[in-house]
Amino acid sequence: VQLVESGGGLAQPGGSLRLSCAASGFTFSSYAMTWARQAPGKGLEWVSHIDSGGSATYYANSVQGRFTISRDNAKNTVYLQMNSLKPEDTALYYCVRGWNILGSRGQGTQVTVSS
Predict the structure, then answer these.
(1) CB distance 113 to 13 below 8 Å
(2) Which residue ranges of the chain lie beneath pLDDT 50?
(3) CA–CA dist 74, 95 (Å, integer)
(4) If you count Cβ atoms within 10 Å of the first and of the last residue's Cβ in the chain, which end, N or C, has fewer?
(5) Neighbouring-strand partners of residue 45
(6) Per residue in 36-69, pLDDT tens?
(7) Alpha-carbon distance 36 to 62, whole Å?
């Protein structure tokens, strides 16, 4: 299993970023995928799920209406579009295989929201 996140960086409050996660080493289209994040000094937090076909999506209350998860099974990639970013969104963002945030995950991509 290999998951490689990208797209993080520095954004201003109210700005946007799009995260990508390229998957390999397993049948991507057979698995739900999850985005999770870990802020400095805090535990791992669930952000969003998407089912294997991409038809069902779920969001934490803290990001509902601002973030959008999607996937392209032809490209073995899952995305997280993040709009209206807030300083409290600052964290290391991980994509995770499956529904459980403790599953196989990548190295993460850092998102920092600051003016």
Answers:
(1) yes
(2) none
(3) 18
(4) C
(5) 37
(6) 999 999 999 999 999 999 999 999 999 999 999 9
(7) 12
Answer whether 21's CB lies under 8 Å from 83's CB. no
Going by C-alpha positions, the residue among 12, 44, 21 that lies closest to residue 112 is 12
Return the pLDDT at 27.
97
pLDDT for residue 86: 98
- d(CA 114, CA 89) in angstroms, rounded, equals 10
Cβ neighbors of 96 (< 8 A, separation 6 or more) are 3, 33, 34, 35, 36, 102, 103, 104, 105
Distance CA 54, CA 33 (A): 9
The token pair that represents 88 in the structure block = 């409290």
Token pair for residue 14?
A: 């109210």
